């Protein structure tokens, strides 16, 4: 948002900025964003989408960098107790972040 505010006369419509940003994301990051959003981000109106992206940018500043790299690339954990074939065990920190994000969506 700082870059947009620094150049308010850039000439790009909000929907185009959101589209450029979304199209430049990896599929795993798109999946994470859609999960946090609770719906298809691109189906929101441009202002809602931009507000949501600003919200994600704000809350993601506190995320641990090592956990962000693991999203979408969970490794099998065969030594996890009570783990079944095809079942993944979440790191407690990731699990808690998912619960907090789900609660935040319910409050909105």
Which features does this protein show?
108 residues; mainly alpha; 6 helices; 58% helix; elongated
Brief characterization of the structure:
With 108 residues, the protein is mostly helical. It has helices spanning 2-6, 14-23, 27-37, 46-60, 65-70, 92-107.
What does this structure look like?
The chain is mainly α. The protein has one domain (2-107). It contains 6 helices and no strands. It has helices at 2-6, 14-23, 27-37, 46-60, 65-70, 92-107. The radius of gyration is 17 Å and the shape is elongated. The two termini are 21 Å apart. The mean pLDDT is 74.
Secondary-structure blueprint:
Layout: H1 2-6, H2 14-23, H3 27-37, H4 46-60, H5 65-70, H6 92-107
What fraction strand?
under 5%
Shape descriptor reads: elongated
Approximately how much helix is present in the residues?
Answer: 55-70%
Radius of gyration: 17 Å
Query: What is the helix tally?
Result: 6
Give the strand tally.
0
SSE string, helix = H, strand = E?
HHHHHH
Let me know the largest β-sheet.
none
Query: Which spans have pLDDT < 50 for at least 5 consecutive residues?
Result: none
Structural class: mainly alpha
Distance between the termini: 21 Å
| Count of the separate structural domains | 1
* pLDDT averaged over residues: 74
């Amino acid at each position: 948002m700082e870059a947009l505010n620094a150049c308010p006369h850039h000439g790009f419509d909000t929907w185009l900025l959101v589209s450029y940003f979304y199209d430049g994301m990896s599929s795993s990051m798109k999946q994470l964003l859609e999960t946090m959003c609770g719906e298809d981000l691109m189906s929101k109106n441009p202002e809602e989408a931009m507000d949501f992206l600003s919200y994600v940018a704000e809350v993601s500043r506190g995320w641990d960098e090592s956990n962000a790299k693991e999203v979408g690339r969970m490794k099998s954990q065969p030594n996890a107790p009570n783990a079944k074939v095809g079942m993944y065990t979440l790191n407690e920190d990731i699990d808690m972040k998912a619960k907090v994000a789900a609660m935040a969506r319910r409050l909105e």
